[in-house]
Design a protein that fits this description.
The complex is a heterodimer of chains A (about 375) and B (about 90). Chain A is elongated and about 140 Å long. Chain A has four domains: about 1-80, Alpha-Beta Plaits (2-Layer Sandwich), CATH 3.30.70; about 105-180, membrane protein fhac (Ubiquitin-like (UB roll), Roll); about 180-255 and about 325-379, no CATH class; about 255-325, no CATH class. Chain A has eight helices and 24 strands. In chain A, strands 11, 13, 17, 22, 23 and 24 form a six-stranded antiparallel beta sheet that branches. In chain A, strands 2-3-1-4 form a four-stranded antiparallel beta sheet. Chain A has a four-stranded antiparallel beta sheet with strand order 19-18-21-20, with no helix packed on it. Helices cover about 25% and strands about 45% of the residues of chain A. Chain B has one domain: Immunoglobulin-like (Sandwich), CATH 2.60.40.2000. In chain B, about 20% of the residues lie in helices and about 60% in strands. Chain B has a six-stranded antiparallel beta sheet, with no helix packed on it. In chain B, a hairpin with a 2-residue loop joins strand 4 and strand 5 (about 55-70). Classes of the chains: A alpha+beta (about 375), B alpha+beta (about 90).
Protein backbone atom coordinates (compact mmCIF):
# COMPACT_ATOMS: atom_id res chain seq x y z
CA UNK A 1 0.00 0.00 0.00
CA UNK A 2 2.96 2.29 0.54
CA UNK A 3 3.90 1.81 -3.08
CA UNK A 4 0.27 2.61 -3.92
CA UNK A 5 0.60 5.90 -2.08
CA UNK A 6 3.54 6.92 -4.20
CA UNK A 7 1.85 6.01 -7.48
CA UNK A 8 -1.43 7.66 -8.35
CA UNK A 9 -3.94 4.87 -7.89
CA UNK A 10 -7.61 4.98 -7.17
CA UNK A 11 -9.73 2.22 -5.68
CA UNK A 12 -13.37 1.62 -6.52
CA UNK A 13 -16.08 -0.58 -5.16
CA UNK A 14 -18.03 -2.00 -8.09
CA UNK A 15 -21.36 -3.76 -7.96
CA UNK A 16 -22.73 -5.65 -10.95
CA UNK A 17 -22.86 -8.99 -12.78
CA UNK A 18 -21.11 -10.62 -15.73
CA UNK A 19 -17.56 -10.44 -14.48
CA UNK A 20 -16.15 -12.32 -17.37
CA UNK A 21 -17.20 -9.71 -19.90
CA UNK A 22 -16.04 -6.98 -17.56
CA UNK A 23 -12.57 -8.47 -17.26
CA UNK A 24 -12.37 -9.02 -21.04
CA UNK A 25 -13.17 -5.33 -21.56
CA UNK A 26 -10.53 -4.38 -19.01
CA UNK A 27 -7.96 -6.53 -20.77
CA UNK A 28 -8.97 -5.27 -24.19
CA UNK A 29 -8.43 -1.65 -23.11
CA UNK A 30 -5.05 -2.58 -21.63
CA UNK A 31 -6.00 -1.26 -18.18
CA UNK A 32 -3.72 -2.46 -15.41
CA UNK A 33 -5.65 -3.43 -12.28
CA UNK A 34 -4.49 -3.88 -8.69
CA UNK A 35 -5.82 -5.72 -5.63
CA UNK A 36 -8.84 -7.05 -7.45
CA UNK A 37 -10.88 -8.74 -4.73
CA UNK A 38 -14.36 -10.19 -4.83
CA UNK A 39 -16.33 -9.53 -1.65
CA UNK A 40 -19.65 -10.94 -2.85
CA UNK A 41 -21.17 -12.55 -5.95
CA UNK A 42 -21.91 -9.09 -7.37
CA UNK A 43 -19.51 -6.89 -5.43
CA UNK A 44 -15.78 -6.42 -5.81
CA UNK A 45 -13.07 -3.87 -5.17
CA UNK A 46 -10.55 -2.96 -7.79
CA UNK A 47 -7.68 -0.49 -8.10
CA UNK A 48 -6.64 1.25 -11.31
CA UNK A 49 -4.08 3.86 -12.27
CA UNK A 50 -5.25 7.46 -12.24
CA UNK A 51 -4.61 7.80 -15.97
CA UNK A 52 -6.90 4.80 -16.71
CA UNK A 53 -9.64 6.02 -14.39
CA UNK A 54 -11.73 7.66 -17.12
CA UNK A 55 -11.64 4.59 -19.35
CA UNK A 56 -12.47 2.37 -16.40
CA UNK A 57 -15.49 4.50 -15.44
CA UNK A 58 -16.68 4.41 -19.08
CA UNK A 59 -16.49 0.60 -19.12
CA UNK A 60 -18.43 0.39 -15.85
CA UNK A 61 -21.04 2.86 -17.05
CA UNK A 62 -21.58 0.97 -20.30
CA UNK A 63 -22.05 -2.26 -18.37
CA UNK A 64 -24.46 -0.51 -15.95
CA UNK A 65 -22.22 -1.15 -13.02
CA UNK A 66 -22.57 0.92 -9.84
CA UNK A 67 -19.22 2.32 -8.79
CA UNK A 68 -18.17 4.22 -5.71
CA UNK A 69 -14.74 5.65 -4.94
CA UNK A 70 -13.31 3.73 -2.02
CA UNK A 71 -9.81 4.98 -1.56
CA UNK A 72 -7.16 6.99 -3.27
CA UNK A 73 -3.44 7.09 -2.97
CA UNK A 74 -2.07 9.59 -0.47
CA UNK A 75 -0.74 11.89 -3.15
CA UNK A 76 -4.17 12.12 -4.80
CA UNK A 77 -5.91 12.79 -1.50
CA UNK A 78 -3.44 15.48 -0.56
CA UNK A 79 -3.60 17.21 -3.92
CA UNK A 80 -7.39 17.17 -3.79
CA UNK A 81 -7.41 18.77 -0.35
CA UNK A 82 -4.93 21.37 -1.48
CA UNK A 83 -7.13 22.26 -4.46
CA UNK A 84 -10.19 22.55 -2.25
CA UNK A 85 -8.41 24.78 0.23
CA UNK A 86 -6.10 26.49 -2.16
CA UNK A 87 -6.49 29.88 -0.59
CA UNK A 88 -5.64 28.61 2.91
CA UNK A 89 -2.75 26.56 1.62
CA UNK A 90 -1.27 29.50 -0.29
CA UNK A 91 -1.66 31.82 2.68
CA UNK A 92 0.13 29.32 4.95
CA UNK A 93 2.95 29.02 2.46
CA UNK A 94 3.12 32.79 2.17
CA UNK A 95 3.28 33.21 5.95
CA UNK A 96 6.13 30.72 6.22
CA UNK A 97 8.04 32.50 3.46
CA UNK A 98 7.45 35.86 5.14
CA UNK A 99 8.69 34.54 8.49
CA UNK A 100 11.75 33.01 6.87
CA UNK A 101 12.59 36.28 5.15
CA UNK A 102 11.89 38.48 8.18
CA UNK A 103 14.12 36.36 10.44
CA UNK A 104 16.98 37.27 8.16
CA UNK A 105 16.49 41.05 8.38
CA UNK A 106 17.72 43.74 10.75
CA UNK A 107 14.99 46.04 12.08
CA UNK A 108 16.64 47.90 14.99
CA UNK A 109 19.89 49.53 15.96
CA UNK A 110 20.91 49.88 19.62
CA UNK A 111 23.97 51.88 20.64
CA UNK A 112 25.69 51.61 24.03
CA UNK A 113 28.55 53.47 25.70
CA UNK A 114 27.55 56.99 24.60
CA UNK A 115 28.59 59.86 26.83
CA UNK A 116 29.81 62.87 24.86
CA UNK A 117 28.91 61.43 21.45
CA UNK A 118 25.21 61.73 20.59
CA UNK A 119 23.10 58.91 19.19
CA UNK A 120 22.05 61.07 16.24
CA UNK A 121 25.69 61.51 15.23
CA UNK A 122 26.26 57.78 15.14
CA UNK A 123 22.99 57.07 13.31
CA UNK A 124 23.84 59.70 10.67
CA UNK A 125 27.21 58.07 10.01
CA UNK A 126 25.53 54.64 9.76
CA UNK A 127 22.91 55.91 7.30
CA UNK A 128 25.46 57.76 5.16
CA UNK A 129 27.48 54.58 4.77
CA UNK A 130 24.59 52.30 3.90
CA UNK A 131 24.00 50.70 7.30
CA UNK A 132 20.28 51.37 7.35
CA UNK A 133 17.67 49.15 9.01
CA UNK A 134 15.49 46.91 6.87
CA UNK A 135 18.32 45.07 5.15
CA UNK A 136 19.34 41.43 5.28
CA UNK A 137 21.89 40.43 7.90
CA UNK A 138 24.43 39.33 5.33
CA UNK A 139 24.57 42.83 3.83
CA UNK A 140 26.11 44.30 7.03
CA UNK A 141 29.89 44.19 7.01
CA UNK A 142 30.56 44.51 10.74
CA UNK A 143 34.35 44.77 10.52
CA UNK A 144 34.07 47.67 8.12
CA UNK A 145 31.40 49.30 10.29
CA UNK A 146 33.76 49.57 13.22
CA UNK A 147 36.43 51.22 11.10
CA UNK A 148 33.88 53.64 9.57
CA UNK A 149 32.69 54.78 13.00
CA UNK A 150 36.22 55.39 14.22
CA UNK A 151 37.16 57.33 11.09
CA UNK A 152 34.05 59.51 10.96
CA UNK A 153 33.63 60.36 14.65
CA UNK A 154 36.75 61.71 16.29
CA UNK A 155 35.64 61.14 19.84
CA UNK A 156 35.33 57.39 19.40
CA UNK A 157 38.31 55.39 20.55
CA UNK A 158 36.95 51.92 19.89
CA UNK A 159 33.73 50.42 18.51
CA UNK A 160 32.42 46.87 18.38
CA UNK A 161 29.25 45.50 16.82
CA UNK A 162 27.20 42.33 16.64
CA UNK A 163 23.85 41.31 15.18
CA UNK A 164 21.64 39.55 17.72
CA UNK A 165 18.21 38.41 16.51
CA UNK A 166 16.91 41.30 14.42
CA UNK A 167 18.92 43.98 16.22
CA UNK A 168 22.28 45.52 15.40
CA UNK A 169 24.11 46.17 18.69
CA UNK A 170 26.93 48.71 18.68
CA UNK A 171 29.15 49.29 21.70
CA UNK A 172 31.27 52.44 21.74
CA UNK A 173 34.26 53.41 23.87
CA UNK A 174 34.88 57.13 23.81
CA UNK A 175 38.27 58.81 24.02
CA UNK A 176 39.32 60.23 27.36
CA UNK A 177 40.15 63.95 27.29
CA UNK A 178 43.51 63.96 29.06
CA UNK A 179 43.89 67.73 29.17
CA UNK A 180 40.87 68.27 31.34
CA UNK A 181 41.44 65.52 33.83
CA UNK A 182 41.43 66.73 37.41
CA UNK A 183 43.68 64.89 39.76
CA UNK A 184 42.29 64.96 43.24
CA UNK A 185 44.94 63.54 45.52
CA UNK A 186 44.46 63.64 49.25
CA UNK A 187 47.14 63.94 51.92
CA UNK A 188 48.02 61.00 54.16
CA UNK A 189 46.48 61.66 57.57
CA UNK A 190 47.47 59.97 60.83
CA UNK A 191 44.70 57.75 62.21
CA UNK A 192 46.17 57.71 65.70
CA UNK A 193 48.05 59.69 68.26
CA UNK A 194 51.47 58.14 67.83
CA UNK A 195 55.23 58.50 67.86
CA UNK A 196 56.81 58.06 64.43
CA UNK A 197 59.47 55.35 64.56
CA UNK A 198 60.20 55.09 60.83
CA UNK A 199 58.75 56.56 57.65
CA UNK A 200 59.34 54.97 54.27
CA UNK A 201 58.20 57.64 51.81
CA UNK A 202 56.98 56.30 48.43
CA UNK A 203 55.51 59.42 46.87
CA UNK A 204 54.63 62.91 48.04
CA UNK A 205 56.30 65.19 50.53
CA UNK A 206 56.77 64.07 54.13
CA UNK A 207 55.65 66.41 56.89
CA UNK A 208 57.16 64.41 59.77
CA UNK A 209 60.39 62.71 60.62
CA UNK A 210 61.45 59.87 62.89
CA UNK A 211 60.73 60.57 66.52
CA UNK A 212 58.00 63.15 65.92
CA UNK A 213 54.87 63.01 68.03
CA UNK A 214 51.81 63.10 65.81
CA UNK A 215 48.20 63.60 66.81
CA UNK A 216 45.23 61.93 65.21
CA UNK A 217 44.26 63.92 62.09
CA UNK A 218 47.69 65.48 61.49
CA UNK A 219 49.09 65.39 57.97
CA UNK A 220 51.98 62.98 57.62
CA UNK A 221 52.54 63.14 53.82
CA UNK A 222 51.50 65.94 51.44
CA UNK A 223 50.17 64.98 47.98
CA UNK A 224 52.67 66.95 45.94
CA UNK A 225 56.36 67.27 45.16
CA UNK A 226 58.18 70.54 44.80
CA UNK A 227 60.81 71.12 42.17
CA UNK A 228 63.89 73.26 42.73
CA UNK A 229 62.34 76.11 40.82
CA UNK A 230 59.39 76.09 43.21
CA UNK A 231 56.76 74.50 40.96
CA UNK A 232 54.65 71.80 42.46
CA UNK A 233 53.41 68.59 40.83
CA UNK A 234 50.39 66.82 42.26
CA UNK A 235 51.05 63.19 43.14
CA UNK A 236 49.42 60.60 45.29
CA UNK A 237 50.55 60.71 48.94
CA UNK A 238 51.92 57.28 49.75
CA UNK A 239 54.20 56.06 52.56
CA UNK A 240 54.77 53.19 54.94
CA UNK A 241 54.82 54.41 58.53
CA UNK A 242 56.07 52.58 61.58
CA UNK A 243 54.77 54.12 64.78
CA UNK A 244 54.26 53.50 68.44
CA UNK A 245 50.63 54.00 69.34
CA UNK A 246 48.75 54.28 72.57
CA UNK A 247 44.99 54.22 72.20
CA UNK A 248 42.35 54.02 74.89
CA UNK A 249 38.69 53.44 75.45
CA UNK A 250 36.64 54.43 78.53
CA UNK A 251 33.47 52.71 79.71
CA UNK A 252 31.15 54.32 82.25
CA UNK A 253 29.36 51.98 84.66
CA UNK A 254 26.57 52.61 87.20
CA UNK A 255 25.91 49.99 89.81
CA UNK A 256 22.25 51.09 90.01
CA UNK A 257 20.90 51.15 86.52
CA UNK A 258 17.94 50.11 84.44
CA UNK A 259 17.99 47.16 82.16
CA UNK A 260 15.50 45.84 79.66
CA UNK A 261 14.29 42.42 80.76
CA UNK A 262 11.59 40.12 79.43
CA UNK A 263 8.26 40.67 81.08
CA UNK A 264 6.98 37.21 80.18
CA UNK A 265 4.53 38.45 77.55
CA UNK A 266 4.96 36.88 74.13
CA UNK A 267 3.41 37.23 70.67
CA UNK A 268 3.73 34.96 67.67
CA UNK A 269 3.40 35.61 63.95
CA UNK A 270 3.51 32.92 61.25
CA UNK A 271 4.39 33.56 57.64
CA UNK A 272 4.44 31.24 54.63
CA UNK A 273 6.56 31.84 51.56
CA UNK A 274 7.37 29.98 48.35
CA UNK A 275 10.73 30.52 46.67
CA UNK A 276 11.01 33.99 48.15
CA UNK A 277 7.43 35.01 47.34
CA UNK A 278 5.46 35.99 50.42
CA UNK A 279 2.18 34.08 50.60
CA UNK A 280 0.76 35.80 53.64
CA UNK A 281 1.15 36.09 57.38
CA UNK A 282 -1.15 35.57 60.29
CA UNK A 283 -0.87 36.49 63.95
CA UNK A 284 -1.52 39.30 66.39
CA UNK A 285 -0.40 42.85 65.80
CA UNK A 286 2.67 43.79 67.82
CA UNK A 287 1.75 46.45 70.36
CA UNK A 288 4.79 46.20 72.63
CA UNK A 289 6.85 49.37 72.89
CA UNK A 290 10.03 47.38 73.48
CA UNK A 291 10.51 43.83 72.37
CA UNK A 292 13.04 41.21 71.47
CA UNK A 293 12.64 39.06 68.34
CA UNK A 294 13.39 35.40 67.84
CA UNK A 295 12.82 33.73 64.48
CA UNK A 296 12.49 30.10 63.55
CA UNK A 297 12.26 28.75 59.99
CA UNK A 298 11.41 25.33 58.66
CA UNK A 299 10.08 23.53 55.58
CA UNK A 300 7.01 21.67 56.76
CA UNK A 301 6.25 19.96 53.43
CA UNK A 302 9.72 18.94 52.36
CA UNK A 303 8.77 15.26 52.53
CA UNK A 304 6.30 15.98 49.73
CA UNK A 305 8.96 17.89 47.74
CA UNK A 306 7.08 21.19 48.13
CA UNK A 307 9.43 24.14 48.83
CA UNK A 308 7.08 26.05 51.16
CA UNK A 309 8.92 27.87 53.97
CA UNK A 310 7.28 28.57 57.31
CA UNK A 311 8.73 31.40 59.38
CA UNK A 312 7.59 31.84 62.99
CA UNK A 313 8.55 35.13 64.65
CA UNK A 314 8.32 35.42 68.43
CA UNK A 315 8.02 38.87 70.02
CA UNK A 316 9.06 39.00 73.72
CA UNK A 317 8.01 42.12 75.55
CA UNK A 318 10.86 43.97 77.27
CA UNK A 319 10.31 46.22 80.25
CA UNK A 320 12.70 48.46 82.07
CA UNK A 321 13.72 47.17 85.41
CA UNK A 322 15.85 48.79 88.05
CA UNK A 323 18.75 46.52 88.86
CA UNK A 324 21.72 46.69 91.17
CA UNK A 325 24.79 44.81 90.00
CA UNK A 326 27.97 45.38 91.99
CA UNK A 327 30.94 46.62 90.00
CA UNK A 328 33.12 43.70 91.06
CA UNK A 329 30.89 41.29 89.25
CA UNK A 330 31.09 43.06 85.90
CA UNK A 331 34.54 44.67 85.88
CA UNK A 332 36.22 41.79 84.02
CA UNK A 333 33.55 41.87 81.29
CA UNK A 334 33.98 45.59 80.89
CA UNK A 335 37.76 45.26 80.56
CA UNK A 336 37.44 42.50 77.96
CA UNK A 337 34.95 44.54 75.95
CA UNK A 338 37.28 47.52 76.02
CA UNK A 339 40.21 45.41 74.85
CA UNK A 340 38.22 43.84 71.99
CA UNK A 341 36.94 47.21 70.88
CA UNK A 342 40.43 48.69 70.79
CA UNK A 343 41.90 45.71 68.95
CA UNK A 344 39.14 45.60 66.32
CA UNK A 345 39.58 49.28 65.56
CA UNK A 346 43.29 48.97 64.82
CA UNK A 347 44.21 50.04 61.28
CA UNK A 348 47.41 48.53 59.99
CA UNK A 349 49.63 45.60 60.89
CA UNK A 350 50.78 45.03 64.45
CA UNK A 351 54.51 44.35 64.56
CA UNK A 352 55.01 43.90 68.30
CA UNK A 353 53.39 42.43 71.37
CA UNK A 354 50.21 44.28 72.44
CA UNK A 355 50.11 45.62 75.97
CA UNK A 356 46.87 46.41 77.72
CA UNK A 357 46.61 48.58 80.78
CA UNK A 358 43.41 49.36 82.66
CA UNK A 359 42.62 52.04 85.19
CA UNK A 360 39.44 52.43 87.20
CA UNK A 361 38.13 55.63 88.78
CA UNK A 362 35.11 56.12 91.01
CA UNK A 363 33.55 59.57 90.92
CA UNK A 364 30.25 60.19 92.73
CA UNK A 365 29.08 56.54 92.50
CA UNK A 366 30.07 56.35 88.83
CA UNK A 367 32.85 53.98 87.72
CA UNK A 368 35.12 55.01 84.84
CA UNK A 369 37.02 52.07 83.36
CA UNK A 370 39.74 53.11 80.93
CA UNK A 371 41.73 50.51 78.98
CA UNK A 372 44.92 51.44 77.11
CA UNK A 373 46.35 49.53 74.14
CA UNK A 374 50.07 50.05 73.50
CA UNK A 375 51.95 48.57 70.59
CA UNK A 376 54.08 49.19 67.51
CA UNK A 377 52.20 49.27 64.23
CA UNK A 378 52.79 49.76 60.51
CA UNK A 379 50.20 51.66 58.50
CA UNK B 1 15.54 -13.95 -18.94
CA UNK B 2 16.64 -15.55 -22.19
CA UNK B 3 19.50 -17.52 -20.56
CA UNK B 4 17.18 -18.59 -17.70
CA UNK B 5 14.76 -20.10 -20.22
CA UNK B 6 17.63 -21.80 -22.01
CA UNK B 7 18.70 -23.37 -18.72
CA UNK B 8 15.16 -24.60 -18.06
CA UNK B 9 15.03 -26.02 -21.60
CA UNK B 10 18.30 -27.85 -21.09
CA UNK B 11 17.25 -29.26 -17.70
CA UNK B 12 13.83 -30.37 -18.93
CA UNK B 13 15.10 -31.70 -22.26
CA UNK B 14 12.34 -29.87 -24.14
CA UNK B 15 12.86 -27.61 -27.19
CA UNK B 16 13.52 -23.95 -26.37
CA UNK B 17 10.72 -22.70 -28.69
CA UNK B 18 8.13 -24.10 -26.36
CA UNK B 19 9.30 -21.85 -23.55
CA UNK B 20 9.31 -18.76 -25.73
CA UNK B 21 5.69 -19.00 -27.00
CA UNK B 22 3.75 -20.82 -24.30
CA UNK B 23 2.26 -19.65 -21.04
CA UNK B 24 4.40 -19.48 -17.93
CA UNK B 25 3.20 -20.25 -14.42
CA UNK B 26 5.40 -19.71 -11.39
CA UNK B 27 4.18 -20.66 -7.94
CA UNK B 28 5.99 -18.92 -5.10
CA UNK B 29 5.48 -21.10 -2.06
CA UNK B 30 1.69 -21.37 -2.53
CA UNK B 31 1.44 -17.69 -1.59
CA UNK B 32 1.77 -15.99 -4.97
CA UNK B 33 1.18 -17.36 -8.46
CA UNK B 34 2.58 -15.50 -11.43
CA UNK B 35 1.09 -16.29 -14.83
CA UNK B 36 2.25 -15.03 -18.22
CA UNK B 37 0.47 -15.29 -21.55
CA UNK B 38 -3.05 -15.83 -20.22
CA UNK B 39 -6.10 -15.40 -22.43
CA UNK B 40 -8.85 -14.40 -20.05
CA UNK B 41 -10.40 -15.18 -16.68
CA UNK B 42 -13.15 -17.74 -16.82
CA UNK B 43 -14.33 -17.44 -13.24
CA UNK B 44 -13.24 -15.50 -10.19
CA UNK B 45 -14.38 -16.28 -6.66
CA UNK B 46 -12.81 -15.86 -3.25
CA UNK B 47 -12.07 -19.57 -3.09
CA UNK B 48 -11.47 -20.39 -6.79
CA UNK B 49 -10.02 -18.71 -9.83
CA UNK B 50 -10.09 -20.35 -13.25
CA UNK B 51 -7.94 -18.79 -15.95
CA UNK B 52 -7.76 -19.69 -19.61
CA UNK B 53 -4.20 -20.03 -20.84
CA UNK B 54 -2.79 -20.09 -24.34
CA UNK B 55 -2.91 -23.88 -24.16
CA UNK B 56 -5.23 -25.14 -21.48
CA UNK B 57 -6.82 -23.93 -18.30
CA UNK B 58 -5.42 -23.34 -14.83
CA UNK B 59 -7.60 -23.75 -11.77
CA UNK B 60 -6.45 -22.27 -8.49
CA UNK B 61 -8.27 -22.99 -5.24
CA UNK B 62 -7.70 -21.58 -1.79
CA UNK B 63 -8.95 -18.87 0.57
CA UNK B 64 -9.06 -15.06 0.25
CA UNK B 65 -7.84 -15.24 -3.29
CA UNK B 66 -7.39 -11.93 -5.06
CA UNK B 67 -5.81 -10.66 -8.22
CA UNK B 68 -2.90 -8.60 -7.02
CA UNK B 69 -1.97 -7.27 -10.41
CA UNK B 70 -3.27 -7.82 -13.92
CA UNK B 71 -2.43 -6.32 -17.28
CA UNK B 72 -2.58 -7.41 -20.90
CA UNK B 73 -0.39 -10.47 -20.57
CA UNK B 74 0.44 -11.12 -16.98
CA UNK B 75 -1.56 -11.77 -13.88
CA UNK B 76 -0.43 -12.17 -10.27
CA UNK B 77 -2.68 -13.96 -7.81
CA UNK B 78 -2.12 -14.05 -4.10
CA UNK B 79 -3.91 -15.39 -1.05
CA UNK B 80 -3.97 -18.68 0.82
CA UNK B 81 -3.45 -21.04 -2.14
CA UNK B 82 -4.26 -24.70 -1.59
CA UNK B 83 -4.20 -26.33 -5.00
CA UNK B 84 -3.19 -25.47 -8.52
CA UNK B 85 -4.26 -27.64 -11.49
CA UNK B 86 -3.29 -27.16 -15.07
CA UNK B 87 -5.23 -29.06 -17.68
Amino acid sequence: MQEDNLKQKVYYEVSGLNFKKFLENIKKNNIQVYNFKRSDYNLFTIGVNKQDEKTFIDICTKMNYKISLQDQSLILKTSKKIKQNLAIFLSIVFVFIAIAISCNMVYRVEIYGLDNVTKEEVVKVLNDNGYNVGKTKSSYNLDKLEIILKENINKISFASSIIKGNTLLININEKIDNDNLIYDYKPLISPYDCIIKNINLKSGTSNVKNGDIVKKGDTIVFPYITYKDGTQLKVEAEAEIQAYIEISNTTVYYENHTELVRSGEKLQQTQFSLLGLNLGARGDKVLFSNYQIETKENYPYKNFFLPFKKTITYYYELVEKQVYIPFDKVVQNIIEKNQNLLYNNLQGNVTDKIEYETTTNLVENVYYVTTYLKTNIIF
Amino acid sequence: MFSFLEEIAKLSGLPFDIFNENFKVINFGNKVIYIEQFKNIISFENFEIVIKLSHGVIKITGENLKIKNMNLNTIVINGNIKTMEIS
